[in-house]
Structure formats: structure tokens, C-alpha cells
Design brief:
Blueprint: H1 2-19, E1 42-49, H2 61-70, E2 72-79, H3 84-93, E3 101-103, H4 108-115, H5 124-128, H6 133-141, E4 161-163, H7 168-171, E5 176-179, H8 180-186, H9 194-206, E6 219-222, H10 232-237, E7 249-252, E8 255-258, H11 263-277, H12 290-297, E9 304-308, H13 320-327, E10 329-332, E11 352-357, H14 364-373, H15 377-384, E12 393-394, H16 395-401, E13 406-409, E14 418-419, E15 455-460, H17 473-485, H18 503-528, H19 538-548, H20 550-566
Parallel strand pairs: 1-2, 1-3, 6-9, 14-15
Antiparallel strand pairs: 3-11, 4-11, 5-9, 5-10, 7-8, 12-14, 13-15
Helix pairs in contact: 18-20
């Protein structure tokens, strides 16, 4: 009987051993594909937010690319399209069993919160062991992008494979657009300095630039505090010193300081106030939104001389009047201030956590490496634009098919290696913002590299039709973005990159941080518009900042900066 029981036990152990996958033995060496070498694709369950732009996740070109590359079977489970994060948080907080992977964007602080509680796997060992080859390659090629540093917590933990689209447009969103019909009427050149800019606005104010017989109805300059890239103080301040769009921190002598305590910042405020005082910038620049700007600048009356915005695409093309209005404006280069400063308000594209391996995953290394395989330009092009030859095409291939055509660079200073739009010929099928099963609509841990910098446009078709600065606002926008990139403050150690704080640090500074940002913006606006403001007395303004907690805020911020980027 004992021998029989022992035989049964041994048989059971053997059966279980045969049934269980040899996880470590079935993984390919780092950098080799497919990652999973088993006879059958390994099933990975992925939780993702449903999206109206993805018609089918299973029968999907990008899904099949990942599955074939890694020898896996991705099986999707869905968060609701409405308030998906709320559902995910409930699942995390109630210890509900999760699939192998959560494919959803969380902040670094949120990722740490749930990772430290054991909901997500700490992927640091895989980075340390060199199996995250695509991530490692990206870091080696672009060491100043802080690709992994941005998602690394203070204790060294890393709870996700990240995503990044290095978008030159969004990095330099604050742009100046000048009405060229006004310049032509006055026989003036595009301004390059703050003095020339002011002189131009004075000419706009004092002359009948739109030719309607009324020399008092022109609005020299218009902006908006809320429209994307329209805040006038952000563009103009950067001709005096660097000021970003987040906490307004900068690096000075290797440490974090605030832009709004520097002498040059107060000079910038006085310059901006002078524009308002002298009726060169409309006070509505601090209240208007895009609808109001469109209504005022998009009329046939041609009332506006210059405005700020990331893109003038918001004019639209619903009427000939709006198309004509947009084409009146040409982009100016960043202005140079009295001390030779010429920055742009810059916000470097940053990685964000996206592909989380959960504690329920039985093969976390495989899941991590599947996410890593997407962190490359090949995956980005498929995941952003679609299939090569259908949804985008290499420049050389297009020109080989259309020898009479010409392709120009979208961003000044960068070679155009591909085109993804074909508004005249219709040969390229643009699937972005449509319901499609080509990709996951940017919901993947891809790495763009400099792909967005090298997109071009068909500037001349075989039939002779041309697209250029004269007839396309989009061409102007893309072209000037390349120029703005050359004024980014990163290269000289001025720009303060993203900072990751510990939970204790966040508890200590969150309220101070929010209060100071609100206070600075409010007091600057009030002062510029001639209202009561602490900025009427510089010492009083700085003293109030200290009362709120500026020294503590900068101390904690500098600690985080030294920890991430210096030590």
C-alpha cells in the first residue's frame, strides 16, 4: 500500500512538473526575439481602457505585431470608456484580482503608492539585469532625456515600463504670430528683439493698418491665459530669463531656484505692464479664451496685429473668412531681451508610467519584456501613424513613385525622412482620430525617439500643386517649431527637469507648492493690469512668498533635484 501511495505521489509530482511551464527556461536571452520560446504563445491578460478610436483590440495590426514579435497571446479586459481611472482605483483599493498587466497611465506618485503596497511588481531588477534592452538602448542614445530617471522613485523602485512621445510642438507651445498684412502696410520687418517688438506694436496702434479708415480700431496684441500656448507672460518673460509652464523653477549654480525671485523676472513684469499701460496689449489678453480670440481675430475686419498661441489651427476652415484670417499671421522667432536672453518657455517631453506588471502575474519578467519590446521607434510609427506604405511612407519611397514631387522638412533643421499626410493626392490613409483596428491609439509604452522631428510634408505634387509658407498655416507652425527648439534652455543647465518627490516630501510641500504658484500668477496679473498687487513693492512680494513657505519649497525641490540628477 505504501509503495502504491508513493508511486501515485511521484506520478502526481511528475505530472504537475510537466504541466507547469518552465518559465525561466522558456525565456530567450536578453535582446533576442521572440521573448517566449515555448511551443505555444504565452497568454498575457491585459487590462486597458476601452477607446472609441480602437474598433477591435484582438483583430488589430499592432496587437498582432506584439504577439508575433514576443510569441504571446494578448487577451484584453476592459475598463469602462467613461471614468476608467475611477474603476481602476476601486479595483486596486479593494484587492480585486487583476490581470497580468495594467495598461493605463498613472502618475509616478500613484504608481509608487500602489507599487509599494504590493499591487505592482518592482521592475528594477529587470533594468539592473539588462533584460530591458529597448529601454536601455533609448537611455544610451538620449542620456539627457531622463527616460528612466523620470519614473524612478526615491528608493530606486520602478513600477512600470514608460511611454514617451517627444513632441517638439508641445515642448515649445508658446508662440508669437504677427499679422503680415500689418507689417507689409507699414513696410516693417518681423521683430527680433523686445525693443523692436514694442516699436512694432506702437506702429500697429498708431496707424490704420487694416485700411478701414479708422486708425483707432486696431488691437496691437492679444493673448489668453487659458488657450494652449497663448499666455502672453510666458512668451515675453523668456526674453528676460527662463520660466517654464509648471512650477516656474530654474537651475542656477547647480541648484533649484524660482524664476520669480530673480531681478530679470521683475524686469520682465515691468516690460509686460508697459505694454498694457500704453495700450499695446489688450487687457482681455488675461481673460479671453480661444472662442473669444477666434471671434475677434477671425473676422474680416482684420483687427488684430499679433497674438500668441501654439497653433492657429483653432481658426478652422469652416469659412473662407477664417481661412484668410489664419493665413494673415506669420510666426516670429523668439525675441531677444535687453540682456541678450532669448529662451522659449520649455517643457521637455517626459516619460510617464504606463505598462504595469501586477502581483498576480505568474511570469513578471516576460510581461516586463513584452512592454519593453514596444519601447522603440518601430513600435511608435505603427502605434502612432499605422502601417508603412499605407498610413505613412518613407520620403525616398514616395519620391521614387512620384519623381516630379518634392518633400520638405516640417521642422527647420531636421531631415524629412517620412510623410504621414497627403491632403492633396489622397494616397496616404490617415487613420488617426478615426475608429480603426490598426493600432491602440497611442495607448502603448512606445518610444518616439526623434521620429516626430523627422516628419516631412509633400511641398510639391507631380501635378504642380504646391504647399508652402504662403498658403499653409500648418507649414508655418511646424517650420517655426524647429527654430523654437533651438532656443530651449536645457543645454546650458538652466532648465529644471521633472522632479520626483517622496510621499513625505509631497505631504510637506503640496499645499505650499499650489499656493505659491497661484499667488505668483495672480499677483503678476493684477500688477500688469494696474490692480492692487504685492508686486507694487518687491520686498513685500518676496516677504509674502517667505510667509507662504518658499524657502522650504525650494529646499525640498533642490533635495529631489540633487538626488535624481546629481548624486
Amino acid at each position: 500500500m505504501k509503495h502504491r501511495l508513493l508511486s501515485l505521489l511521484l506520478a502526481l509530482i511528475l505530472a504537475l512538473a510537466l504541466a507547469a511551464p518552465a518559465l525561466a527556461d522558456d525565456l530567450a536571452p536578453a535582446g533576442e526575439y521572440p521573448v517566449w520560446t515555448g511551443d505555444e504563445p504565452y497568454v498575457l491578460r491585459v487590462l486597458v481602457a476601452n477607446n472609441a478610436h480602437v474598433s477591435d483590440w484582438d483583430d488589430n495590426t499592432f496587437t498582432k505585431w506584439v504577439e508575433e514579435k514576443c510569441n504571446v497571446d494578448l487577451q484584453f479586459e476592459f475598463l469602462p470608456e467613461v471614468e476608467p481611472k475611477q474603476k481602476l482605483i476601486i479595483m486596486l483599493d479593494t484587492n480585486e484580482e487583476l490581470p497580468d498587466v495594467v495598461l493605463y497611465g498613472l502618475s509616478v506618485a500613484e504608481a509608487y503608492n500602489y507599487g509599494s503596497k504590493g499591487k505592482f511588481v518592482n521592475l528594477k531588477e529587470y533594468f539592473d539585469e539588462g533584460v530591458m534592452v529597448q529601454c536601455d538602448s533609448a537611455v544610451e542614445r538620449f542620456p539627457t532625456w531622463n527616460l528612466i530617471t523620470n519614473i524612478t522613485n526615491s528608493d530606486g523602485s520602478i513600477y512600470a515600463v514608460p511611454k514617451i512621445q517627444a513632441s517638439p510642438q508641445n515642448e515649445t507651445k508658446y508662440k508669437l504670430w504677427v499679422n503680415k498684412t500689418y507689417l507689409d502696410a507699414l513696410n516693417m520687418e518681423m521683430p527680433t528683439t523686445t525693443d523692436e517688438f514694442r516699436a512694432m506694436l506702437e506702429a500697429f496702434r498708431d496707424n490704420d493698418c487694416n485700411g478701414d479708415g479708422d486708425a483707432s480700431d486696431e488691437i496691437p496684441l492679444l493673448g489668453s491665459p487659458s488657450s494652449w500656448g497663448s499666455n502672453p507672460v510666458k512668451f515675453l518673460t523668456n526674453a528676460f530669463l527662463a520660466e517654464d509652464d509648471r512650477d516656474m523653477w530654474l537651475i542656477k549654480d547647480g541648484h533649484v531656484e524660482a524664476s520669480y525671485t530673480q531681478d530679470a523676472w521683475f524686469d520682465a513684469v515691468e516690460y509686460i505692464k508697459g505694454l498694457v499701460d500704453d495700450k499695446l496689449m489688450a487687457p482681455e489678453s488675461f481673460t479671453y479664451g480661444r472662442p473669444e480670440i477666434k471671434a475677434v481675430a477671425g473676422t474680416a475686419g482684420n483687427k488684430v496685429g499679433a497674438l500668441f498661441d501654439s497653433s492657429l489651427g483653432f481658426f478652422g476652415s469652416d469659412t473662407d473668412e477664417l481661412v484668410e484670417a489664419r493665413l494673415r499671421f506669420w510666426p516670429a522667432e523668439p525675441l531677444t531681451g535687453p540682456e541678450g536672453v532669448s529662451y522659449v518657455s520649455y517643457n521637455q517631453s517626459a516619460t510617464s508610467p504606463l505598462w504595469f506588471v501586477t502581483s498576480f502575474c505568474k511570469n513578471p519578467e516576460l510581461a516586463a519584456r513584452v512592454g519593453d519590446c514596444m519601447f522603440c521607434e518601430e513600435a511608435y510609427m505603427l502605434g502612432r501613424f499605422g502601417v508603412e506604405g499605407v498610413n505613412w511612407i518613407k520620403s525616398e519611397d514616395y519620391l521614387a513613385k512620384h519623381p516630379g514631387a518634392e518633400i520638405s522638412t516640417s521642422l527647420e533643421g531636421y531631415e524629412p525622412t517620412y510623410v504621414s499626410e497627403d491632403s492633396h493626392g489622397g494616397e496616404i490613409e490617415n487613420v488617426f482620430l478615426t475608429a480603426q483596428n490598426v493600432n491602440w491609439f497611442d495607448q502603448m509604452p512606445t518610444f518616439s525617439g526623434v521620429s516626430d522631428y523627422h516628419g516631412g510634408f509633400i511641398s510639391k505634387y507631380e501635378d504642380g500643386f504646391e504647399i508652402n509658407w504662403e498658403n499653409s498655416g500648418g507649414v508655418r507652425q511646424n517650420g517655426i517649431t524647429g527654430v523654437y527648439q533651438q532656443h530651449a534652455p536645457t543645454l546650458d543647465g538652466t532648465y529644471c527637469p521633472n522632479l520626483n518627490f517622496t510621499t513625505e516630501e509631497l505631504d510637506e510641500i503640496s499645499e505650499i507648492r499650489a499656493t505659491i504658484k497661484s499667488f505668483v500668477n495672480e499677483q503678476r496679473t493684477n500688477y500688469v493690469l494696474g490692480r492692487e498687487s504685492y508686486l507694487s513693492d518687491k520686498d513685500a512680494f518676496l516677504a509674502e512668498l517667505e510667509k507662504i513657505g518658499l524657502s522650504k519649497l525650494l529646499e525640498v525641490a533642490d533635495t529631489a533635484y540633487q538626488r535624481q540628477y546629481v548624486d
